[in-house]
Specification:
Blueprint: E1 32-34, H1 38-50, E2 55-59, E3 74-77, H2 84-87, H3 91-100, E4 105-107, H4 117-125, E5 129-130, H5 135-142, H6 144-153, H7 169-179, E6 183-187, E7 197-199, H8 205-220, E8 225-229, E9 235-244, E10 249-261, E11 264-270, H9 277-293, E12 297-306, E13 312-318, H10 325-332, H11 336-344, E14 364-371, E15 373-374, E16 380-381, E17 384-385, E18 388-390, E19 397-400, E20 408-409, E21 416-424, H12 427-440, E22 442-444, H13 450-457, H14 460-464, H15 471-474, H16 488-491, H17 504-517, H18 527-530, H19 543-553, H20 566-573, H21 575-584, E23 589-592, H22 594-597, H23 603-618, E24 623-630, H24 633-641, H25 645-655, E25 660-665, H26 678-691, E26 695-698, H27 705-718, E27 721-728, H28 743-755, E28 760-765, H29 772-785, E29 791-795, H30 802-812, E30 816-819, H31 833-840, H32 848-864, H33 873-876, H34 881-884, H35 888-900, H36 907-920, H37 930-944, H38 948-953, H39 962-968, H40 983-988, H41 1013-1024, H42 1031-1038, H43 1051-1056, H44 1059-1071, H45 1079-1083, E31 1091-1095, E32 1101-1109, E33 1118-1125, E34 1128-1135, H46 1137-1145, ...
Parallel strand pairs: 1-2, 1-4, 2-3, 4-5, 23-24, 23-30, 24-25, 25-26, 26-27, 27-28, 28-29, 29-30
Antiparallel strand pairs: 6-7, 6-8, 9-10, 9-12, 10-11, 11-14, 12-13, 14-21, 15-16, 17-20, 18-22, 19-21, 31-32, 32-33, 33-34, 35-42, 36-38, 36-41, 37-40, 38-39, 40-42
Protein name: pyruvate carboxylase
InterPro entries: Aldolase_TIM (IPR013785), ATP-grasp (IPR011761), BC-like_N (IPR005481), Biotin_BS (IPR001882), Biotin_carboxylation_dom (IPR011764), Biotin_COase_C (IPR005482), Biotin_lipoyl (IPR000089), Carboxylase_cons_dom (IPR003379)
Enzyme class: ligase
Length: 1251
């Protein structure tokens, strides 16, 4: 054995172990019992079987499906004894079972009763052999104070500490007064890190002592603890010994167990090859000295602390087999568990061939404990079903334990799943082998510590062998960038050392959930059509086909059809240069709105079309831009598509680098539904331009110039091209003297927009009211008034005359017209782009054949989404739009909402009511969010069956929709021509703003203080983690706030209440990023027996078959879905929310024990950090609590956790009782903090709930 401390590669020894006599003949037990569970019970049975011994196991009822029962010849149910753990601690019951069933030897394993002198004596009294140390040994070493006294007597150095167990906090305080801090509190009995706490601060002594004592009592039946000085920067080295009780003891060399967390060993190494040989020899000698002095019998471990100067101090003796005995077995070749049986049967060390001079370590062995713990949540134990379980195998890898697919990890016991032990001739070889073991395993369904262990294996200090007991605590980087976790932010950057993990688990959970529950009703999918979605992925259009088409068309100059690179002009020379280039362009330019109309389609579908689109449009000089973002993108992306809208923009930008991207900006409303503080709009525009947007089409839903001013200036400040939109309504050609939307109105408004700095003007016709005659008049007059300003024309094809209007506008002087690809056009969408191009003839050189390649693709894609489209749209739409003026974008929403409100078949009434609502509100421009106000009022009129006169007269007492109240309060600004009376006055009676005013004066957003982005980001990071939250997430949660929810002094609180944002992150946490899931699997629930193909990249193909869906589990509210993935079965326990709803509505929901979940964004929402059992409830509703006060105690996997209040306040709800079982994140209580005073530096408007 080399003594070189700095060369861990040399930790080998070729000396052979002496040959052994026939072992089987030495062991004559008739039947041996493993008085334990899980991994160690399996290990005991395997060792006994190799000695030809019949085996028996015991199990608590909660363990009836545990795999340790499988390895034994017989298995016996333990009577209930208070708790599941208590069943394994009931000595009389265990002895009774053993006697009744002919057991003559009991092996206790580790934990539970393994160190109980009482249990060993009970075995002896019953005539049963206890396979372990003598009763005297257990009495001595089971009490750490007695062990300490023996060590001192034997001349072994110890750490200063108490000489007897302490039972009161006063005794602990007295010790600290004498010896100072830090100190270690340790359970007088037991081990495994239970009942251990390190105290650094005086104020922590009492609570930590109580916690350690309580945990010791729960784990070992004795709450006594002793206290000793805590050795800083120490290393943990332990010596494996075996004695025969006849005066003979040998050591099996030492182990380094310094990589620990919460005093639980994480990685164990044999031998301790990173320590100098003189230190190793010293601990070996002291271990033998101590155990020989007490005539030690059977296996045990002598544990030492080694300080940074190489001095060693005795800690304790664990008189039992240790969890980490496997590493010693691998390097010495000694079967420790078999040795315990042989010694118990009366054999001597010589009989079984254990001579000290022959016991020499070979190579290096390392063990990692694989536990069901979540490293991202402070190693909180996790429970649930193992979806799939396949262990690493191969040369030099040993697996101890038995977990299996479909196994349920319970909250009652230790979190250990399995142990991987690797051996190799060198230290670095052992690390490489362990990396493989950790990467190649397939354990899914519960969180494990494997990602964390991979980080340990890759840490430079670990590789060098330079680590101590503070290794994990001192390096938080070990818990960051965990390879293979579900975090969507990390999947794209996973390194080569990470677990082999491509989010297949998240995809399969999503597929299982969709198969069980289908799509939420809120998405409006037609169940009868969902099954018609094709079970394959629509292939991308081929750019090469478009290139061939364009090559054939080229004549004359090689670049005759090449694009003028409008984007390069903007990004290099600025917005004014782009405006000039547009005006100088000879032909009519087009903007393709297909990607904007595909808002409800997944980014993956747009990305497949991106290259071909970029090729087609880059091959012509007459395409201006792609409208593809903004408006409802944020709401739809997070609420329906479960995607990040910023990633959508950035990914498409990368895929189509040459085209101008264009977005909709709702003026002071940003891309949301309410007013925002000014700095929010500025920051949003800045980030949008940075992420790849170029053109901002800015509009205000009421054409309110002050709202437009904010949007125009914010967009311009970002560097983008500002296209100020005039929201068109009415009929500009009407000669009616009461027509307020006449030519002068539009020209005056346009002048104000140009004076504000708009680079271009847009006419935004949301409802398709712009007739060809109106387009000719309005555009020609705008062109005459603003000869240098580009004019962009946009309409919806509601009445079927969109193409004609675009053509008329182009003839009148419009520079750019909008259209959508054929299969995405018409009805409530934009007019057909192909028809516009054909009608323009030589004035537009966009190739129709190239467009057809794109159209073929979008036609197939749209079919996949057909079940989510409103099927009644064709019948509901038409020329009557000139009467009701419903915007194209609102048609589908109104139809769906009407159905949800029970107004199916009455849409004709809704349309008439919409016209009446528009009149009552003052005949306003209708576009989000003002169109929502009109729609809400229309459905209110139909639902209430109320006349115009009754509504106006009784508005003060009727339950008017909140959006209508807020509109009249001026939350969106004033409408053209002012608010109508007396309806407004009646609505506002008894509905003042928070500050007492009846309504806003001027622009509402000007009254809001600047949004505190830093505070919001801090709050979000506290709720969701530093790595998950970036500045873009802060913006995202602002963009989906309902109308006027932000109009409150509690800005941050309200932003965090956005259920869409929270549900989006909850979905991501559960399934990971599902961006790469093919659309047919995203939309179409699989059927039993059906197989689908999932391609996740080069060499990553999965063939998924839905094998079965089990019956409904009433206790859990779940179904188990069995999927076969490349032939391997996955068992996925899936909540069945559909059946639950049916049962609850029929009065049968009482058995469904589904609890509320905590709100991570609300500090007073107190949830469980891990699954477990509530053992103490210290509060009741109405109590006032302090910050940091202990409200509950949770017992999880033999570990007690105090759950404290994060804030001071009043307890408004308590949802659990003592002994309740809870899952992770279950809501336990809610604490409301006292209201904070309102900042009076600016007046603050009222928060009114949106109806």
């Amino acid at each position: 054995m080399s003594t070189n401390k700095t060369n861990p590669q040399s930790c080998t020894n070729p000396s052979p172990r002496a040959s052994s006599p026939p072992l089987v003949e030495m062991c004559s037990f008739k039947k041996v019992m493993a008085a334990n569970r899980g991994e160690i019970a399996v290990r005991i049975c395997r060792a006994a079987t190799e000695l030809n011994l019949p085996t028996a196991t015991i199990y608590a009822y909660e363990d009836r499906n545990s795999a340790h029962r499988w390895d034994s010849d017989e298995s016996f149910l333990l009577p209930a004894s208070g708790t599941p753990v208590g069943a394994y601690l009931n000595i009389s019951n265990i002895i009774g079972i053993a006697k009744e069933n002919g057991v003559d030897a009991i092996h206790p394993g580790y934990g539970f009763l393994s160190e109980s002198a009482e249990f060993a004596q009970a075995c002896a009294d019953a005539g049963i052999t206890f396979v372990g140390p003598s009763v005297e040994n257990l009495v001595t070493f089971g009490d750490k104070t007695k062990a300490r006294e023996l060590a001192i007597k034997s001349g072994v150095s110890v750490v200063p500490g108490t000489t007897a167990p302490l039972t009161t906090t006063e005794e602990a305080e007295a010790f600290v007064e004498q010896y100072g801090l830090p100190v270690m509190i340790k359970a007088a009995k037991g081990g495994g890190g239970k009942g251990m706490r390190v105290v650094h601060k005086k104020e922590d002594l009492v609570p930590l002592f109580k916690a350690a004592s309580s945990e010791a009592l729960a784990s070992f039946g004795d709450g006594g603890c002793f206290v000793e000085r805590y050795v800083k920067n120490a290393k943990h080295v332990e010596v494996q010994v075996i004695g025969d009780g006849k005066g003979n003891v040998v050591h099996l060399w030492e182990r380094d167990c310094s990589v620990q967390r919460r005093h639980q060993k994480i990685v164990e190494i044999a031998p301790a090859c990173h320590h100098p040989m003189e230190v190793r020899k010293a601990v070996l000698e002291d271990a033998l000295k101590l155990t020989k002095s007490c005539n030690y019998k059977n296996a045990g471990t002598v544990e030492f602390l080694i300080d940074d100067q190489g001095r060693h101090y005795f800690m304790e003796v664990n008189p039992r087999v240790q969890v980490e005995h496997t590493v010693t077995e691998q390097v010495t070749g000694v079967d420790i568990v078999q040795s315990t049986f042989l010694i118990a049967s009366g054999a001597s060390l010589e009989d079984i061939g254990l001579k000290q001079e022959n016991i020499l370590p070979r190579g290096v062995a390392m063990q990692c404990r694989i536990t069901a713990e979540d490293p991202e949540r402070d190693f909180a134990p996790d429970t649930g079903m193992l979806d799939v379980c396949r262990h690493s195998l191969g040369p030099g890898i040993r697996v101890d334990g038995f977990s299996y697919p479909g196994m349920v990890v319970q909250p009652y016991f230790d979190s250990l799943l399995v142990k991987y032990t690797v051996s190799c001739s060198t230290w670095n070889g052992a690390i490489r082998r362990m990396r493989r073991a950790l990467r190649d395993n397939h354990i899914r369904g519960v969180k494990t510590n494997i990602p964390f262990l991979l980080n340990v294996m890759d840490h430079p200090d670990f590789i060098k062998g330079s680590f101590d007991l503070n290794f994990i605590e001192d390096d938080p980087e070990l818990l960051r960038h965990l390879p293979g976790t579900l975090s969507a932010q990390q999947l794209e950057t996973q390194g080569t050392l990470g677990q082999k993990y491509d989010n297949i688990e998240g995809y399969l959970k999503y597929i299982a959930n969709l198969a069980v529950n289908g799509h939420p009703k809120s998405l409006g999918a037609d169940p009868s059509l969902v099954r018609t979605i094709d079970n394959y992925d629509v292939p991308a259009p081929k750019s090469s086909d478009i290139t061939k088409i364009l090559e054939k068309k080229k004549t004359g100059s090689a670049d005759a059809l090449s694009a003028p690179h409008f984007r390069n002009i903007l990004r290099r020379h600025g917005a004014k240069a782009l405006a000039k280039a547009v005006r100088e362009h000879k032909n009519v330019l087009v903007t393709d709105t297909t990607w904007r109309d595909a808002t409800r389609m997944r980014t993956a579908d747009l990305l497949k079309a991106a290259e071909a689109t970029n090729t087609a449009f880059n091959g012509t000089s007459d395409v201006f831009s792609l409208e593809m973002w903004g408006g409802a993108t944020f709401d739809v992306s997070m609420n329906f598509l479960r995607e990040c809208p910023w990633k959508r923009l950035e990914d498409l930008r990368e895929a189509a680098p040459d085209m101008l991207f264009q977005m909709l900006l709702r003026g002071a409303n940003g891309v949301g539904y309410t007013v925002y503080p000014d700095n929010v709009v500025y920051e949003f525009c800045k980030q949008a331009y940075k992420s790849g947007n170029d053109v901002f089409r800015v509009f205000d839903s009421l054409n309110y110039i002050e709202n437009m001013e904010l949007g125009i200036k914010a967009a311009a400040a970002s560097g983008g091209f500002v296209e100020a939109a005039i929201c068109y309504t009415g009929d500009v050609t009407s000669t009616n003297p009461e027509n307020k939307y006449n030519l002068n109105y539009y020209l005056d408004y346009a002048k104000k927009l140009v004076d504000l700095g708009a680079h271009a003007l847009a006419v935004k016709d949301m409802a398709g009211l712009l007739t060809p005659r109106a387009a000719t008049l309005l555009v020609s007059e705008l062109r005459s008034a603003f000869p240098d300003v580009p004019i962009h024309l946009h309409t919806h094809d509601t009445a079927g005359m969109g193409v004609a209007s675009m053509l008329a506008g182009a003839e009148a002087g419009a520079d750019i017209v909008d259209g959508a690809i054929d299969s995405m056009s018409g009805l409530s969408s934009q007019p057909c782009l192909g028809a516009i191009v054909a009608a323009l003839g030589e004035k537009c050189n966009l190739d129709l054949d190239a467009l057809q390649v794109l159209n073929d693709y979008w036609e197939s894609v749209r079919h996949q989404y057909n079940p989510f489209e409103v099927q009644a749209l064709n019948a509901a739409i038409g020329s009557n739009v000139f009467k009701h003026e419903i915007p194209g974008g609102q048609y589908t929403n109104l139809l769906f909402q009407s159905k949800q409100l029970g107004l199916s078949g009455r849409f004709a009434e809704v349309k008439k009511a919409y016209a009446l609502a528009n009149k009552l509100l003052g005949d306003i421009p209708k576009v989000t969010p003002s169109s929502k106000v009109v729609g809400d009022l229309a459905q209110f009129i139909v639902g209430m069956k109320i006349s115009e006169e009754e509504l106006v007269a009784n508005a003060a007492t009727l339950p008017i929709p909140g959006s209508v109240v807020e509109y009249f309060q001026g939350a969106l600004g004033p409408p053209p021509g002012g608010f109508p009376e007396p309806f407004r006055t009646n609505v506002l009676k008894g509905r003042p703003l928070e500050d007492g005013r009846p309504c806003f004066e001027g622009r509402p957003g000007s009254e809001l203080p600047d949004y505190d982005f830093a505070a919001a980001e801090k709050t979000l990071k506290e709720a969701y983690g530093d790595e998950r939250i970036s500045f873009k997430e802060v913006l995202s949660q602002l963009c989906i706030i309902p109308l006027a929810s932000i109009i409150s002094h509690t800005l941050i609180w309200m932003y965090l209440r956005s259920h869409v944002f929270k549900e989006y992150l909850a979905h991501e946490k559960k399934y990971g990023s599902i961006d790469k899931l093919p659309t047919h699997l995203f939309l179409r629930p699989m059927e039993v027996g059906e197989e689908s193909h999932l391609h996740l990249g080069r060499g990553k193909d999965y063939y998924i078959r839905l094998a079965s869906i089990d019956g409904f589990d009433k206790d859990l509210g779940t179904r188990t879905v069995t999927l076969e993935v490349n032939g391997e079965k996955w068992f996925i326990r899936t909540p069945d929310t559909v059946t639950q709803l049916v049962d609850e509505s029929s009065g049968g929901g009482a058995s469904l024990k589904r609890r509320e979940k905590k709100d991570p964004s609300a500090k007073g929402s107190i949830g469980t950090p891990m699954p477990g059992q509530i053992v103490a409830v210290n509060v009741k509703e109405g109590d006032e609590v302090k910050e940091g006060q202990t409200l509950f105690k949770l017992s999880a996997m033999k570990m007690e956790t105090e759950i404290k209040s994060p804030i001071a306040g009043k307890v408004t709800r308590v949802l659990v009782a003592q002994n309740d079982s809870v899952e992770g994140d279950d809501l336990l209580a809610e604490v409301h903090a006292p209201k904070i005073g309102i900042d009076k530096t600016k007046p603050h408007p009222q928060h009114v709930h949106f109806g």
